[in-house]
Design brief:
By secondary structure, the protein is mainly alpha-helical. The chain has helices spanning 2-6, 10-56. It is rod-shaped.
């Protein structure tokens, strides 16, 4: 009965749900990777600025 309401079979709905779940997880992992990349870039920039400062003050 439920499958008739949504115009598909339960197995089709299960497959679509699985695809949606996998895509959502892939998006989570991608977001995490982007966050790590931004952090690494920011930390590298910090280290460069710190080095410039130390050179400027003769350390």
């Amino acid at each position: 009965m439920v499958s008739k309401l949504y115009g598909g079979h339960a197995s089709d709905n299960a497959a679509l749900l699985k695809i949606r779940m996998q895509k959502a997880w892939n998006d989570v992992e991608e977001s995490y990777q982007q966050s790590c990349d931004k952090y690494a870039d920011a930390y590298a920039g910090y280290q460069n600025k710190l080095l410039e400062y130390r050179q400027a003050v003769g350390q």
